[in-house]
Every structure is written in C-alpha cells, then in structure tokens.
Amino acid sequence: MSAPAVTLPAARLTGLFPFLNRYPLVAIAGIVLSAIMLAAVLAPFMFTRDPTAIMPLQRLKPASELSWLGTDHLGRDVWSRLVYGARVSVLVGLSVAALSIGLGLVIGLVAGYIRWLDAIVMRVMDGLMAIPGILLAIALVSVSGASLMTVIIAIMVPEIPRVVRLVRSVVLTVREEPYVEAAVSVGTKLPLILIRHILPNCIPPLIVQATYVCASAMLTEAILSFLGAGTPPSIPSWGNMVAEGRLLFQIAPWNLLWPGVALAVTILSVNVLGDGLRDRLDPKLAKRM
Amino acid sequence: MADPVLKIEDLVVALPRGADRAHAVEGLSLEVNPGEILCVVGESGSGKSVTAQAVMGLLPKGQLTRSGGRIILAGEDISDASPDRLRDLRGSRMAMIFQEPMTALNPVMTCGDQIDEVLSIHTDLGADERKMRVLDIMAATQLPDVAQLFDAYPHQLSGGQRQRVMIASALVLDPALLIADEPTTALDVTTQKQILQLMRELQQRRGTGVLFITHDFGVVAEIADRVAVMRYGKLVEQGPVSEVLRRPREDYTKMLIGSVPSLDPPKRDAITVGEVALRTTDLAKTYGGTSLFAKGRVVKAAADVTIEVRRGETLGIVGESGSGKSTVARCIARLIDPTSGEVRIAGVDIARMGQGELRPYRRKVQIVFQDPYRSLNPRRSVGLSMVEGPMNFGMSRSDAERKAAELMVLVGLKADALGRYPHQFSGGQRQRICIARALMMEPELLIADEAVSALDVSVQAQVLELLDDVRKRFDLAVLFITHDLRVAAQICDRIVVMSKGHVVEQGVTAQVYASPKHPYSRALLEAAPGRGFAFGAG
CA–CA separation, B334 vs B445, rounded Å? Predict the structure, then answer.
C-alpha cells in the first residue's frame, strides 16, 4: 500500500505558533522552564563553586561580586546552592511524574478493561489515596533513612491512584466505542486492543496530569526537606535552603528569599505550561474558559 | 387568509471560512400560516436546523451569523431584534421543542417547575394561578396523573412522557409559532405516532403555526399541511403535502421520495437450501442479580430467543428500543456473554467458550455497527483498520493490504483511500468501509446492528443495496437488526419481531407484514408513519 501523505499531524504542527502567539504566558513559562532545566544540567558551568564548600570567613555576606546572591551561615555560596538545588527539584519532579504516570497508566488500563479486577484494584487505590504523602514520607525516612530515592518513592505512591482514576475513567468510556468492539470481533488480542485502540485516548489528559504531578512533587519535596524529612542536609536542595534560611531571615533575608523565589517561579511555570497544554489538547475546555 | 405567523424572506446564514460551502442557508423564503404545519425536510447538512436556530435567534455565536434576509414573526421584524426582545419573544410568541427530550429537560428540576418557569418569567400570575395553568396544559398533553407528575423528575418519565412535558412547556403561553426540530426522531414508532397525533390536535385547537423539521418522509406524510424541501441550504421546492409527495416537480425531491423504502415487501423466494450458519436455542441474557457486594435488580434483556439463519438469507430482527434486539446481536457476536442458551455457529456452540477457544469462531461472525462516526478508530488510517483482522490470524501484511484494496473497490470506494483517515469520509462511505472490514475476515454470518439507521435516505438505499450485493456474492448469512420497518421490509427474507426481550412473532417477511398474528406486531406495523403513501414506487 502506497500511503499518501497524512495531513492530520501536519495540520496540528502548523497551529503551534499561532497558539503560542495567542497564549504568550505559555511561551514564557516554556522558556523559563527550559532555562531552569538547562541550568540544572549544566550546573558546574554556571559560574558556580562547590555548593557544599564551607568558608567560615565568608558567613552571611550579602550579595557581592564574589558571591552574587550572598552566602549562608556556613559561608556557602547561595547562587551555587540554588543552581545545584535545581537539580534536585527537577530530578524529583520529572522522575515522580514519569514513574507515577507509567505505573498508573498500566494499572489504570488493566483496571478499566478487565472488569473483575476493577473492584479489587480500585479499593487498593482508595487505600493508597487515603495515606497523606507527607506522613508516608516521614514514615519511610524514619525506616530507611533520608535519601533522594526515599523522597521520590514517598511522593510517587500517593500520586499513583490519581493517575489510575484518570486512566480508568478514559478506558471506561472508550471501551464502549464501537471501534473497540469491532477490534474484539476481528480477534485482536487484549494487550493489542489496550495499546492500539485505548491507550492513545489516554495520552492527552495524561500529559496534562503529568505537569501537575511534576509541580506538586517539586513542592512536596521542598516541604519534606523543610521539615527535615526530605533530602539529607548534605545535598543542596531548595527545601533545605529555605529551612536553614528561615532561622536567619532577619539578618540575612537572601537565604530564604532566593530559594523561595526559585521554587515559586518553577512551579508556576510548570502549572502555566500544564494549563496551556490542556487548552491545546482539549479545545472544548479552552473554549469554555 | 390571516397574516402568516412566520415569514422568512431571503434568509442567508454564512458559514465560517474554511467550511465546505459558503452559506449554511442561502436565499431561503418560507411562510408559516396560523394553524398550519409546514414540514421542512432535507438530509443532514441541508440547513434545516440552522433555519430554526436563526428564527429563534439561537445561532451559535461566533460560528454562524445571519448575513442577509428578514425574519418576520407575527408582523414584527425580528431579524435585528435585541437579545432582550428575543428573550421576551421566546416562550411567549415562539417556542421550540427538540429531538432529545432527556437532554432538553433539566434533570434536577421537577417537570412541573420547568413548565412553571416559563410562566413565572413571562407573566405576573400568582403561584396558585400558575400551578393551575401548568396542570391544565399537562392534562391537555394527555399526561397521566398530572398532579403526581407535577412533582416528578424527568428521569422518572418515559421518553414519550418527557416529550409531552416539553410540548406542554412550549405551548403553555400559547405561542403563535412552534418550532419542532425532529421532535419524534428519538422516540419509538408507537410513541411517535401518539406524539404526532397530540401535536396535530393541540396545534389545530390553538391555531398555532408549526415549523416542523424532519428528515423522515413518513412523518411528513402523517403531519404536514405543506412541505418545503431543502438541500445545501437552498429551497428545492415547496407546496401542499399531497402535491409534493405525489407529484414532486424537482428531480431531487423525486429521488428523495423514491429512496424511501416501501412498506410492501417485494416478492422473495424462501431460502431453504443454504447451510445453517447460525442457530440460537433459548438464548437469554440477564443483567444484574445478586453479587457479593450488592443485591441488584434483575433485568431480563433477552429470554428464550430461538432463531436460525441460513447462508444466503437475511433475517431481520425488528423491535423498539429496549426490546432486546441489540442484546441478542451482541450475544451472538460474543461481545457480551449470554446467561444461558446456545449459540451455534456452523454447528458449534460458542455460547460459553473461553476467549482462546473462541478465537477461530470470531472470524466467522462479523458485525457492522450503527454509528459510522464511531466504528472506526479515528487515530488509525482506514487501511490499518482493515488489515488488523486478517493479520491477527497470521495473514502477511502485503497480502492483507492487497485484499483490502480489492474489497475497497468492491464496496464502491477507491483503493488509494486506504491511506486516509476516517474523518475524511462521509457517513455512508464509512459504513462501506465497515462492511469491507467485516468482509476482510471472510465471515459466514454478518450482523448489521442498525447499520443504516444513522444514514440519510438516499445513502441508506445505496448501503442497503451493497449489503444485499455482498450477501449474494459471498453467500453470507445476514442478521439485520433494525427499528425501521420500511428498511426491514425491503431487505429481509424473514422477520423476527421482538418485544421486551421475547420473540413475539417470526415468519416470512411478506406474511408478517400482510397479516401480523401477534397484537404487538400489529401495533408496530400500524404505527409506521406515512402508511397511506406508497413510497419507493417511483
């Protein structure tokens, strides 16, 4: 079969620039996020020093040519810690989003399509959803010690049920579509039906959900670190910086200010991007707003 | 004659740029006189609903705009009326009823309150007086036990009762003009007949002018005084109903009326020689029942269904919604599991087979669904949808593609259309693709579940022809499920009439139509709209 050129994807791509033109905020959010990620990846080349190097002589110095954003109570460079801290936030945000979406997608597809499994899986998910994320994190950290992995797992577990519910609801509507029944009656096996005919319908809402999971994971990580149940103090993270800066807020406000601003800007950008994606992927909703 | 209640002069409604034509309605002029029913008929996309929306001032904002012409309601030019004035007029001077009474009624308001709302907005009557008026109009629409229904919610009513409530709320202020947009399309034939009678009676007693929009010539024959035929947004012809239906002037009207299937079954030879492709014995499907967690209501969707189809034969299952005809089809295709009974495909009982065992039999039974817009995966090219089945059974891709190309030509499409996506085809073309996809599997039994019900009459006729053609060519057994007695009369060798999950009558089509034995079959046949007109003769 010599397939003629398909017009559908092309039509969607040409619409991208007018879309960004119409939603300049989304474009800005995208640029900001890209900059933050780039900085995180290229941290050693971002005019940084060792973020954990203690310089007792340079304690609580305000911004200067030597340290752009000042230093903290151990004389560590705030700029360097901020840039390296972005690594933690980005890593936690992305990996929690990827893991919870991946696991949730599989569980949701199965629960939505195989009816006898549905009741069992969903009761388990209800149980998981009832666990507050922060409580779970504190419990996990006290059992296995503070590490990035524990933080990621602790944040991921309560997110999974939300993804499962979303996927399941899409599956429940799509499985009744005649084209799915047609696939059943031409003898397509279950895994193929799920992947070919049902999964593609879940992707748009999942992409949007992923951005929200990512933002909330970053925030939760900061909260956990702030509480001392998150990333160990040896790793520079925005939550740790806010926690340490809080005590000295009146003497050296920059210790609290900059990680707070970084966190707020990052999360805002992710959320704006998520809203933009939703408007783009679900035009019906966009029109209503 | 008195002034017309509605006069449309040279109406033009523009479509947004990039649509398949420039105008949804172009140069339309119509008149509706008091006490008269004007039926506007046309196929989908003819602009008949847009006309109704334009009159009501309800054109979707930003998409459609009236770009010319005048609309005069009872002497008042409302073409440029303010939104406030239009709101005043809607409900009091003009009212509208819609196709789907369930969605047109607010599910969280009682029926009485919904009718009352019209009165409280447009009149200064006191609460007691309003309630009197509401009960009066409800009684006038022949709703039973109005005092009780006043406090009932829409979901507690049947479809016909809901439509009566809609009519009551439309007529409570005695509007001069009633616009009815396919008001009986979602209803069963027997209910449709009652609603049409009711509308006729009320409208004559009150002298209301009615603009009745429909695609169904049977309904036109039942209810219209005058008919206007539309196509591509233009008026094709208009005139008194007897004139247009019996002596249409325009070719398009002739074609439309000629496409309406006749209620008289043509002569067919009984098929007794073919090998039995399908036999069900006491097939039953029960929903609900007591499970581990809940004690549910038991619904018998189908019970004691014993039918037989031979190869080369078309068996029709007719019945109203909820009669269980689709349940039977889905049990036979094993899309749902039957509760009891046998389903023998080529002699083997598949009713309780596991999925693995069932697979070789899946290809022998193929199904074509009602909705051509949802039967094909919108994200996959038509070619991919077609080759999926044979490739599941080990056919190589190139062989499957060659076969798909052949079948596309067979169903009247071009082979190079395989690379295109479903949205690039019309409803009729998609239904052809679905038939081709079914044929890819080389089935013995083809189930057509309301396969032509969503299509316009002219397209319907072509798809029916195609179905009959492939039946002959591949010696298929066809199980044809429909609510449309006209279609069934034309294509089925034998007919099974179902009601409330049971088979009430079965026999050779001509016999059942000529002398139905069961009272339900008789009622069903008598309710078929437009019985008096011999459609399809021309």
Answer: 13
